[in-house]
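[audit] Reproducing an earlier prediction to check determinism. Same input, same settings, fresh worker. If the tokens differ from the archived copy the diff job will pick it up downstream; this log only records the rerun itself.
[audit] input (328 residues):
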Amino acid sequence: MKKQQNIQSNEALVFIKTFLIAFLIITIITTPALAAVTKVVDSNPGGEEAPVLEDVMDYLIAEDSPFFEAFTNTKRVNILLLGVNQGLTDTIMLVSFDTQNKHVDIISIPRDTYYHRAGYNSDAEKKINAAYRKNPVNTAKAVSEILMNIPINYYAVVDYKGIEKIVDTMGGVPMDIPFDMKYSDPYDKPPLYINIPKGQQVLNGKKSVEFLRYRKGYIEGDIGRVKAQQQFMKNAFKQCLGFDLPRIATTVYENITSDIKLKTVLSLAGKAVGISSDDITTYMMPGNPDPNPPYYVYPKTTQIAEMLTEIYSLGTEEVAEDAVTDQE
């Protein structure tokens, strides 16, 4: 049973991660269409009760930090994307949009990353996925701290229940299925049954969920699965551009919680014109995974500094070395 639950959790994680990346780009593409049918440019998908990061986050960036100038004078917009499953953030990604150079960098934070907070002493509570506690600000603070106090401007929270509605709204996603996909999981809630025949077809919302959650049969294993999901996203983007953008934008808007105001996304949309999949670079937070329970992933500070040096194009090894000194 425990193994079955782990499989379910992994499937949910991959599915949410796929949708989160799609959400960011689809939102930027479709928001101008939403603006055409609404005058509420100061609204956001979270409503008035959603916390606003810029109102509560206090970034303690030391002036002697090698990242001080980059973080304070940057042309980047950093958005925290959270995939929530049963109260935990199964997926945590920081999307950094370089508005000047029109490039997107995505940093994935493992959900088992060790993050100790005063007063939370159980093994499970020392993992970053437990920091959420129904408030995205908690996770934003944790991610910022791990990533050298990097500023985080906005957040977006989603579960994977809305993807079926979004895909159906865009008229389905055309896909060439490489082989028959069949899988059953009676332990899932509700039970999961996948049955997609090989060949070219248009996947509706239900079948898209099945496709994104399918995990067996790829020759390259997980790499093959990731490639298939990337192709799904590319096809979804093309479908968005050729369909009813106001309807798609409205559906996306209704299925996420975020502090990103409509007028802000409109601004980002203008800056994102011309961006393609070639302008997106993905990273995994450098960490040292412990093979023993509770399987923490310990952040590797030196490598994290090197990663941020590359993302912010600072270009010197000394930057990473100085950052490690500042963190210690």
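[audit] rerun output stored. Observation attached for the diff report: The chain has eleven helices and twelve strands.
[audit] end
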